[in-house]
Amino acid sequence: MMSKQQYIWWTGLILLWLVKASAWWLWLRPVVRGWLNNSSLPADNWWQQALLTLYPRLVTELPRLGSDFLISRADGILVRLLLLLVAAFLGQKYLIPWLFIQGKSEEPAATLPRWLHLATVAFLGWFLFDIYDDLLRREPIAFVFEGRWPWNTLSLLASAPTTKWLDVNIGLSVAACLLSFFRPMHVLTRRLLFAQFLVLQYWLYGYGKLDHTYATMNWALLAWAWQSTLTLRLAVVATGMTYSLAGLEKLLASGFAWVIDAREYLILEHSPLGSALAGLPWLSALLFLLALLFQVFSLPWLLSRWRLWVWMTTAVVFHLVTFLLFGAGAWISPWYLALIYCWHWHDKASARPLT
Amino acid sequence: MFSKGAQIPDHLLKMLVSTALIVAFGIPFVLQQDLWPFLRMGMFAQVAGNDLVTENFELTKNGTPFDLQAVGLAPASAQFMFRNAWYQHRAGVLLDSMATHNGNATDRWVLNHQINNKLVDSVVRPGFIPSSLP
What we know:
The structure holds two protein chains of two kinds.
Chain A: H1 4-37, H2 46-54, H3 57-105, H4 114-137, H5 139-142, H6 155-158, H7 162-179, H8 186-206, H9 214-225, H10 229-254, H11 257-260, H12 262-269, H13 272-278, H14 281-296, H15 298-302, H16 308-326, H17 335-347
Helix pairs in contact in A: 1-3, 3-10, 4-7, 4-8, 4-17, 7-8, 8-9, 9-10, 9-17, 10-14, 10-17, 12-13, 16-17
Chain B: H1 10-31, E1 55-61, E2 64-65, H2 75-87, H3 91-102, E3 109-115, E4 118-124
Helix pairs in contact in B: 2-3
């Protein structure tokens, strides 16, 4: 039952959304459309400058996609804002109490088992080298690409000699991985390694591209660096939310055309398995539909204990099939670390599911 | 911070966690924009189509296509970089950098913009001085 204060709070938020939606449709939409129709995209006032700062790719995408497409994406922001309100309401009602009340009443996962620590260090080491390798291959970009605001503010890093800085960085991280096994520095080294992993991702991001699969690995590493029931549950929730949002993105950006036109993806990617599947349009559409359902409903499935094994098996198959069909990901993917943490959460006798 | 016997009051911790979740997932989801280190999950979200416009950038040095792989730049990375520089009106900066690292002041560096394999525009390195001029 909502308190009076909560009732006022949520009513206010919905009213605010209605005001924003009205302002967009009745006033701002034609103004922005007029601006987008001017292909040079002048930045004459604050909102034009703000838009170009927030979406620097507007300049890149306008000639290719056209103003209608971009306006429809702007319409989508309002829909997404409403969905976020609904999600925040449900989250406040179900997720936050689950993260705190049940978490507190159970045995806290104050220390993770040694095998999980070993697995985390192995994954972290692997992907530190993966980023290192990625940055080295992009090294020629470093002297022409300054990085985007506000990430270029760390100019000290960006202007340092790339290879030397990376060598020192990776050397220190290997030492820190070893140190993290021994007291008394193990907690500090775990947290430093977590921070360093973020900094390396920042560098990749500064060049304009980032592998989104690190998203859930970051949450698993948070539970590794700050070990508690709360952070472990946060990692599980974050994993479920990541999959669910990826599914929602597909629905919002493309609708069911994403499923119906599945063959196009398979034909364009041209993998041996994809080409074979493209000859069976119904089967490829069914496969895409199943993938979409798996993604959208990941969060509730993941938080339900008896279905977790089905979910995890599906998740592994999902990633392997994605890799085989589209070449996206690899045999070893950052996602697997998040899955291992979900498994550990499930494996703990104290970890009671939400439903 | 989140360990047993944490000093942070419960209501503050709840607020921090709620805010972190909204910032990490909500804002990139609403704005459809990557925010480091919180990422948007829009990979493969667009409908695929085979009626796409093919866009290509070609870098030439003294009229000859420059071998980018010889300087360790993969073709996909190069296209990504050229495209960014082109639409951000920084092709001149890019060509200057290329000239500084891979040639001398008399080299003529040109970035060609091709749509569906047809040349539509070019940018010549701003610092280029034709040798025929005094």
